[in-house]
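In response to the reviewer comment on reproducibility (Comment 2.3), we provide here a single inverse folding case reported in full, input and output, so that an independent group could reproduce the run without further information from us. The structure tokens appear first.
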């Protein structure tokens, strides 16, 4: 009878280094040096900890020198930052592979584990019609819609306003983005048109906006 092996969970280090401040890089590096020094869980490190310590000290000094905004000092600081980050990435991969999916062993290294929690998709907010205005040519109206993050597309309904109320019939237009503003040509001068918009996201469409009107010149 065969015995199935338990699946080892991969624990990955948090590596958003490009979003970290210089001070955060120094703090992360220092924590890793502290965690890995004499750590019996990780004995064949791909980076010498003394070299990492020296690189972090150099980065700290260059951060102070770059405070005056000098281009040379900034360039040196950025180059040293890349050196420290490269060392941390190598060590992070080593810890990931050699921690055997054990969270206690992983965190003993000084690295922070990346979150494995997936953020569920959220409904989109209702779009906003910022303005409807005359276009560059006669018979044209232009609609400006506020862009919504994570919207897949926008559907616009428009038609002739009837007695101050909604259109009796509408035409639909779907656009993938709101920039540049969307133009509608061939409309009847002297006529009031009404517009409404809804956005589509991963969970479907939002509600329709209220009607926004404008007369064509």
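Designed residues, in position order:
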């Amino acid at each position: 009878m065969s015995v199935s092996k338990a699946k080892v969970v991969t624990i990955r280090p948090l590596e958003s280094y490009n979003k970290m401040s210089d001070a955060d890089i120094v703090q992360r590096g220092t924590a890793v040096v502290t965690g890995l020094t004499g750590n019996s869980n990780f004995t064949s490190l791909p980076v010498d900890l003394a070299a990492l310590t020296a690189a972090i000290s150099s980065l700290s000094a260059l951060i102070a020198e770059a405070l005056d905004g000098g281009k040379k000092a900034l360039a040196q600081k950025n180059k040293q930052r890349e050196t420290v980050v490269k060392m941390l990435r190598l060590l992070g991969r080593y810890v990931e592979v050699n921690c055997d999916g054990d969270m206690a062993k992983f965190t003993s290294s000084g690295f922070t584990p990346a979150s494995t929690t997936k953020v569920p998709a959220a409904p989109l907010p209702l779009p906003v019609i910022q303005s409807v205005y005359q276009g560059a040519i006669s018979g044209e109206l232009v609609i400006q819609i506020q862009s919504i993050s994570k919207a897949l597309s926008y559907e616009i309904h428009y038609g002739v306003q009837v007695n101050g109320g909604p259109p009796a019939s509408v035409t639909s237009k779907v656009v993938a983005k709101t920039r540049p503003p969307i133009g509608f040509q061939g409309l009847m001068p002297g006529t009031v048109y009404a517009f409404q918009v809804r956005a589509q996201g991963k969970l479907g469409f939002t509600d329709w906006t209220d009607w926004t009107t404008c007369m064509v010149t």
